[in-house]
Amino acid sequence: MSQKTPLYDEHLAAGARMVEFAGWQLPIRYGSLVEEHRAVRERAGMFDVSHMTVVDIEGPGARDALRRLLANDVDKIRERGQAIYGCMLDENGGIIDDLITYRLDDDFYRMVVNAATRAADLEWIGRQLADFDARISERDDLAMIAVQGPEAVEHVVELLGAPEVAKLKPFRSLVHGDFFVARTGYTGEDGCEIILPNESAAETWRRLRERGVVPCGLGARDSLRLEAGLNLYGQDMDRETTPLESNLAWTVALEPTDRDFIGRAALERQKQAGVPRKLVGLVLSTGGIPRQGARVITDAGDGVVTSGGFGPTVERPVAMARIPAAAGDDVQVELRGRQLPARVVKPPFVRNGKPRAGVLDETPSE
Amino acid sequence: MSDIPSELRFAETHEWAELLEDGVIRVGVSDHAQEQLGDLVFVELPEEGEEITRGEACAVVESVKAASDIYAPVTGEVVSVNESLNDSPETVNSDPYGDGWLFTVKPADENELDELMDADAYGEHVSED
User: Which residue of B2, B58, B65, B90 to mutate against A (max A Cβ within 10 Å)?
Assistant: First the structure.
């Protein structure tokens, strides 16, 4: 039996097509995926992300525990409410999950991890943190709504009567009554993620809808994050890949050198030996849309599409692919027996609601 | 509730077929199918002159999220394809029974059309989905 979020009835009332995702009943789209996508790029849309797992880590050993657990360093956090993004690795440097960690107070951190990896994450965190003086609690009493788009912050400010939200820098958060509001998201647009009590979720969702914020499903969430060049766990990265092979070297804090995080030795070995593969963006003209699993032919050997689809804002097929590190920028994607020319570009494909300069020029001709 | 014109015949795989005056059959996807597929962003059509076989994949329609095969509702030779869909595949969503047609086919056996569902039978088929 799959679980229902506190917004389940709201989704049905709005005519959503529901799908099962990571054990949850969630909307894939309400009407047109492309219209939902555009609403986020041009105005404001909202997503029910209550399926995501919120884990609080509290206690005098919390900081040391997280400096061991995460490849990024929570000591980079300078002020209360600030967050870092990064990976939790196994001893081989393989990615167990990617997550955002907020420091709420000196001995109090909050992590938001993927629903699909919830059980494995909780087991791993519990095991690794056993020797630290820190308490782990899963907050299944909390729901989560992401409000995204150029007008998103304005809506949240007015909804909550909280002008301080407008002053939040990216990756900063604040507490407003029972609500936790962070300037984060998964769309490449400005916006907020609101973590709130389950019982407040439906009313908040309805009030955002009354303001004209467009409900968006998992379909638009995926096309938006793909255009924004944001990795999806389980597709673009997993236990078989390291952050260095996943375009996430920037999230690995190798300094200071005396911080012994899990996976460090493996990453240092890989770095020394040479990272064999890279995760890149691909842009195609037309002739078909690359999908996950499609073969990528390069001058340095084969690679594979990890995520692919049509980018409604760039108006062409885009993909992420893992290819040999030595591969050049002109590659081919195999699709239904044909080989389509593709160009390697550095993600993101879209920035501030517009196709990024360079992406359109790089599109190969047919 | 989706629109099901009474003059058309339908395959279980949601293609429609319409017999034109010159004995050629025009093929598209049903309103129900376009709703299920969502916004179409790419259509791959057969070649003119290509022989297609009833029940076999002969075209592909792609939404943002997924690719889906289109199956030939009858056996025959492709006469013409709707080239305008190359530039505006979304026409399949907005006008599935009109400007969003996919291709026409000269049937090897016109009687094959009778083996497809009529509008009432297709309506029942869709309600079981």
Answer: B65
Give the mean model confidence (pLDDT) for residues A182-196: 98
Residues in chain B closer than 8 A to A349 (CB atoms): none
Chain A residues touching residue B66 (CB < 8 angstroms): 291
Task: Report the amino acid identity of residue A24.
Answer: W
* Cα gap B55→B36, rounded to integer Å: 20
pTM greater than 0.90 = yes
CATH 2.40.30.110 holds for A276-366: yes
CB contact set of B93 (below 8 Å; sequence gap of 6+): B34, B37, B38, B39, B40, B100
Interface of B with A in 59-98 (CB under 8 A): 60, 62-67
Q: Which CATH architecture has domain B9-116?
A: Beta Barrel (2.40)
pLDDT tens readout for residues A288-338: 999 999 999 999 999 999 999 999 999 999 999 999 999 999 999 999 889
The ranges assigned to domains in chain A are: 3-51+140-227, 276-366
Alpha-carbon separation of residue B5 from B36, B43, B72, B119 (angstroms): 18, 23, 19, 7
Inter-chain residue contact B41 with A291, CB threshold 8 Å: no
Indicate the CATH number for domain A3-51+140-227. 3.30.1360.120
Cβ distance of B42 and A309 shorter than 8 Å: no
Give every CB contact of residue A268 below 8 A, 6+ residues apart in sequence.
A254
**Which of A21, A33, A225, A366 would best serve as a mutation to test chain B binding (most B beta carbons within 10 A)?**
A33
Q: Six-digit token pair at A30?
A: 């309400």
What Å distances lie between residue A141 and A2, A22, A136, CA to CA?
Answer: 17, 18, 14
- What is the reported pLDDT for A357? 81
Please compute the mean of the pLDDT values over residues A15-21 and round it to a whole number: 95
pLDDT for residue A366: 60
Burial of A193 from C-beta contacts in 10 A (0-12 / 13-18 / 19+): buried
Whether residue A288 and residue B39 make contact (CB cut-off 8 A), yes or no, is no
**Mean pLDDT for the stretch of residues B108-129:** 92
Listed by start position, the domains of chain B span 9-116
Contact B38 A288 (CB under 8 A): no
* Residue A147: alpha-carbon gap to chain centroid: 14
Tokens 């009835």 sit on residue? A9
Residue A287: pLDDT band with limits 50, 70, 90: confident
- Say if residue B1's pLDDT is above 70: no
A214-239 tens-digit pLDDT = 999 999 999 999 999 999 999 999 99
